[in-house]
Amino acid sequence: MRFTRRLAHAGQPTIEYLHVHREVLLDQAAIERVFASQSPFTGSLDVHVVFTDQGARQFARITREHTGERLAIVVAGEIVVAPVVRMEADGGTVVISNFGSDEEAKQLATRLSESLRR
How many CA atoms lie within 13 A of 44 on its CB side? Predict the structure, then answer.
């Protein structure tokens, strides 16, 4: 699948081709809510994903098994973000950071929130 992102320093689109396994590891039923908020550390927007109880357990297992790997988040057949899993996420909430702009973070939060309504 093709994944397009903007580099923060140049603002130019960068196209990456990622091999994505077809197996769905987690779907929108595992997510309770998604929102963007300002990071107290950087001042830029981060995206917070809050999982259901079962979703939190599933996501902890997934991140434990895939630490150091990229995890593609796919909405409507399109990769919207593919962050590197830094550690097991076992707290029930995950924060996605380091966007090229606040607008990019808002767009991701909106797309993920809208996917919950389907």
Answer: 14
Q: Give me the residue spans of the domains in the chain.
A: 2-116
Dump pLDDT digits (tens) for 17-74: 777 888 889 999 999 999 999 999 999 999 999 999 999 999 999 999 999 998 888 8
In this structure, what DSSP letter does residue 29 have?
A: G
Quick one: pLDDT at residue 9?
Answer: 46
Please tell me the distance from the alpha carbon of residue 24 to that of residue 26, in angstroms, as a whole number: 6
Q: Is 11 left (phi over 0), alpha (psi -120 to 50) or beta?
A: left
Distance between CA 18 and CA 71 in Å, rounded?
10
Q: What is the Cα–Cα distance from 76 to 21, expressed in whole angstroms?
A: 15
Helix (H) or strand (E) holding 26: none
Note the pTM of the prediction, 2 decimals.
0.82
Q: Which fold has domain 2-116?
A: Gyrase A; domain 2 (3.30.1360)
